[in-house]
Amino acid sequence: MEVCGGQTHAIVRWGLDQLLPDGLRLIHGPGCPVCVTPAASINQALALARRPEVILCAYGDMLRVPGSEPGDDLLRVRAAGGDVRLLTSPLQAIALAQSHPAHQVVFLAVGFETTAPATALLAQQTARLGLANLSLLMAHVRVVPAMAAILAAPGNQVQGFLAAGHVSTVMGLEELHPLVERHQVPVVVSGFEPEELLRGVLGCVELLEAGRPAVLNAYPQVVREQGNPGARALLQQVFQVVDQPWRGLGVIAAGGLALRPELAWLDARGRFDLAEQGRAEGAGAQECIAAQVLQGRALPSDCAAFGSRCRPEHPLGAPMVSSEGACAAYHRYRAVPCRS
Amino acid sequence: MQELIQLAHGGGGTLMQQLIDRDLRPLYADPAQVLHDAASLALPHGRLAFSTDGYVVQPLEFPGGDIGLLAVIGTANDLAMAGARPLHLSVALILEEGLPLALLRRVVASMAAAARLCGLTIVTGDTKVVERGKGDGLFITTSGIGLQSLGGAQPAAPDGPALVPSAIQPSAIRPGDQLLVSGDLGRHGVAILAARHGLQLDPPVLSDCAPLWPQVERMLAAGLRLHCLRDLTRGGLASALQELAEAAGVELAIEESRLPVIEPVARTCALLGFEPLHLANEGRFVAVVPPEHSAQALALLEPDGGAWIGAVRPAAGRPQVVLTTALGTQRLLLPLSGELLPRIC
Predict the structure, then answer these.
(1) Average pLDDT over residues A80-109
(2) How far apart are CA B216 and CA B211, in angstroms?
(3) Low-confidence residues of chain B, pLDDT below 50?
(4) φ, ψ (nearest 5 deg) of residue A146
(5) Bridge partners, residue B288, by sequence
(6) Which end of chain B is more exposed for a tag (fewer CB within 10 A), N or C?
(7) Considering CB atoms only, which of B198, B270, B273 is closest to A323?
(8) CB–CB of B25/B110 below 8 Å?
């Protein structure tokens, strides 16, 4: 299983799975931060964005994720007059808060350990500057606990992982060793270029054939054993590990990050009267098989709605929304050409 | 104090007259010309092409261009894609209250320079001002006419101008035709994204904004038959090819390794999760050329960075664009769906 949605996209974009021998199957993992953000968090973001005093900030591909209702996303709220801003760096929220003192700026903080350090920096600087009109709607998740949950689930088919190179750049290899020891599966840290992914697959197969589950770093030019100590320290200073619901996977033990108590005043859920908005499950929950896709139990093309009632323009589930989602990857690249 | 556009600049009174006299005159071919509501133009014999387009880009100025440059070359390029030499343009400006006059002056100067570059004249126009908040600083609409023959006289229809099919159009595309692009892809899209999102690219990527007529003229002057031309604007090469495939009812097979994409564009796309073939261009076109003329057409385009990218095949099923990757695998190339949004990580 490749963990990261960026890897899924590269695999499908380059048709790498078409090149692999029979008997070797790549299973697409849950590693798309957009896809796993729970509908409840999206609902809360939508509710905040509708408030006239709020400027809701989010990364680009979060704007299209529907909450509980199909088609109800931040783009629609923006079109209806809500102030929704697209950020490429969380720190841009500081300038927004400073230039709009009469508004409350809320940053929808999503992503894995890759983006969490930038959110941590935002939290620290907000506290340092004493900005009372900036808060965080936290939805950050941790990858390794999700890998453990997939391995522990009944009917698991995953025999080895390609770990996410970007996450490992921050977190290093340390937390992968206990996972390997406990579940006896090889984990190979892999990059995103075709040759890096193939090197990762080869490493995984060699470990499997040798019967030697281990952690292998096949992305050494970027990933170090210790990861990025500065970023890890920042995460520790600002966040604490919590149990967290993942869209499609349920509550994952130690699967999320929350603000530490001393920074809890930055939490948008506390600052605003945010009741649970709408249903807990996402739009299209009746028909969408996103949960199966995110656990590697189904391919996007197994879904009856794929490419017809569920398309990037009107997605039923988050994996079709996100540029890293497996369904979007299949839709973008995998519609079968008429000839070979 | 900075001068700003006020609502009164659109009121038809003294301020508007002053704006036209002082600031918009540079647009026109002959600044001494008395401006009427319509221009009278003497045209040589030949077929006219006529086109119009609106320009709403943000930011108004970006690396390698501005909205004024786009508004002139955009319509000129639409004419060139019909095989027509751009001749004359009309310009409608919609100004928002509060627009800095200095910015408007820079845009106007840029439009005048672009008109000279395209060899066309701006002959008539219109100016409106909308209240603050009702525009986006500046909207521009341009309409243009061009001449579809290269001097070779074609008799006008006996009853005056009539709508006639262009010789260069999607229905002329045939299986076996070759696909060429006129230069590298995606630079305008990256330049706009960088300006919009404050990305500091090193080195900066400049827009590819450029007039297309010179390249088209070179091919026509060489006597080449061109089955279709399509400028690559929003939606990039992927959207343009899909439209052509559908309009002509064919399959387009392209080779990814042949697509000219400069390294900074490829790198930025990898970073943000974009497909370079979905990014906008403003100075590039795809040419569909019959096989016997493709080598010569390529020789004319190559000095500007043009390249052969693939060929037309009969549609086996529904019309589509099939891309062969550098690894030899195949995938469909679909048009851009919705807004380009940068990915998270």
Answers:
(1) 96
(2) 10
(3) 150-154
(4) -70, -40
(5) B179, B228
(6) N
(7) B273
(8) no
Q: Would an 8 Å CB–CB cutoff place A13 in contact with chain B?
A: yes
The SS3 call for residue A64 is helix
pLDDT score of B7: 81
B335: nearest CA partner in chain A: A332
Q: Which residue bears the tokens 């439009």?
A: B111
Structure tokens of A176? 């992968």
d(CA B154, CA B48) in angstroms, rounded, equals: 11
Count other C-beta atoms under 10 Å from residue B295's C-beta.
Answer: 11
Query: What's the whole-model pTM score?
Result: 0.84
A338: confidence class by pLDDT, cuts 50, 70, 90: very low
Pairs of residues, one from chain A and one from chain B, whose beta carbons lie less than 8 Å apart:
98
CB-neighbour burial class of residue B303 (10 A; exposed 0-12, middle 13-18, buried 19+):
exposed
Mean pLDDT of A189-215: 95
Task: Give me the pLDDT at residue B164, please.
Answer: 66
Mutant choice from A3, A9, A14 vs B, greatest count of B C-beta within 10 A: A14
Q: Mind telling me how many Å the CA of A334 is from chain B's nearest CA? A: 6
Question: Are A68 and A321 within 8 A, CB to CB?
Answer: no
Mean pLDDT of all residues in A143-155: 92
Closest-CA residue of A relative to B198 is A88
Inform me whether the pLDDT recorded for A187 exceeds 60.
yes
pLDDT score for B45: 67
Residue A277 pLDDT level (bands cut at 50, 70, 90): low
Interchain CB distance below 8 Å, B273 and A6: yes
Tokens of A273: 């009267």
Non-local (6+) Cβ contacts of A211 within 8 A are none
